[in-house]
Amino acid sequence: MAEGVFREHIQKSGLRWTVDSAGTSAHHQGEPPDQRAQREMRRRGIDIRTQQSRPILAKDLDTFDVILAMDRNNLQDIQSLAKGEISRLEKIHLVLDQDEVPDPYYGGPEGFAKVYEMLDHAAAQWVKRWANQHSHGKSLE
Length: 141
Fold this sequence. Notes:
By secondary structure, the protein is mostly helical. It has a single domain (about 1-135), classed as 3-Layer(aba) Sandwich (Rossmann fold), CATH 3.40.50.2300. It has helices spanning about 1-10, 35-45, 60-65, 70-80, 85-90, 110-135; strands spanning about 65-70, 90-95.
């Protein structure tokens, strides 16, 4: 869901940045998003059905300027991939500054709606911040 929400905000801002998503486990590797997530996103006008799950790789920490984690467990898993390298660690953040995005998998459809709202708010803030940094000639790292 986060990939779709961020992609939507970036496109609406007229920015041309790459967005990708990955999990900290390979449990659902190659699978599309949960049907309930797809349904919620369609309801919001965002199509995520072509996305496929993949695990995050250490090389992602070199490829991408910013890595956002949904919760503290994911944050720690991603930080361990950085192997203490400051340039990699500085790229890794929680998507919500002090809060965590809950996993809606075990909740009903309302859990996916709540997660959408959280991600939509976070994406708006992140994209605004990045666009301001970019327009002032600052690096996104």
